[in-house]
């Protein structure tokens, strides 16, 4: 009996020692984490949302495994300029654009206005519903625009059952639809020869909506609707005159007509 009691006491002592060791390890790990947080650089602690997004995008590009021939050429750094691709190859992977351009993104307000009688601010998400026997099935659509403020622009529309997947689809389509815009200084009031406007008058159309863009001198600003201002800023245009015909509150057509007009600057240059 005495031997059994001594064995049980020894086992209990071992269990108690193991528990104490585990608690000490936990305390040490927590202390290490706290020390790392306190000693981490201030810049890293105070990273903005844009910097975190850039860091995440950089990690995605590094871990990217290309599937197309063009993607493998970009990964091997055989092509370093996106202007060599646009118009010659079909871009099927958004990482191609991310690795060659430093893009900025924005969402166009295409959704319904909040508030009674449409008095509130419009949203980036446009919600529609499908009536079925099980009930109403909502769908969200989103329109995104990407650009590097140096003449490259892309527009994309995404639809999904939730908002975030719709946004990611829109950004993906916008990157795959990237195009080059010709900038210049075509106003007779300005002789700066800088790329702050467009080189000549252009006209774009989508549905029943028409947009005419004129070059403007420096200091004029963007004389156009708010949603097209987002597009022109991402292109890198600072001054422009415009005139529209049709219902500009249809943001889908308004944005597409603006892109159509901007594309004609490059088409005329090629001719």
Mean pLDDT rating: 84
| Helix content percent band | 40-55%
CATH architecture field of the domain at 202-270:
2-Layer Sandwich
Tell me, what's the shape? elongated
CA radius of gyration is 28 Å
Q: What's the β-strand tally?
A: 8
Task: Give a structural overview.
42% of the residues lie in helices and 19% in strands. By secondary structure, it is of the alpha+beta class. Among the domains are: 49-100, no CATH class; 202-270, 2-Layer Sandwich (Ribosomal Protein S5, domain 2), CATH 3.30.230.10. Strands 1, 2, 3, 4 and 5 form a five-stranded antiparallel β-sheet that branches. β6 (202-206) and β7 (209-215) form a beta hairpin. α4 (69-75) runs parallel beside α5 (94-100). The model has no long low-confidence stretch (mean pLDDT 84).
Summarize this structure briefly.
With 271 residues, this protein is an alpha+beta fold.
Structural key phrases:
8 strands, 3-stranded antiparallel β-sheet, 5-stranded antiparallel β-sheet, Ribosomal Protein S5, domain 2, elongated, 271 residues, alpha+beta
How are the secondary structure elements laid out?
Elements: H1 2-39, H2 42-45, H3 49-62, H4 69-75, H5 94-100, E1 104-108, E2 126-131, E3 136-147, E4 152-160, H6 163-176, E5 179-180, E6 202-206, E7 209-215, H7 226-235, E8 240-245, H8 251-270
Antiparallel strand pairs: 1-3, 2-3, 3-4, 4-5, 6-7, 7-8
Helix pairs in contact: 4-5
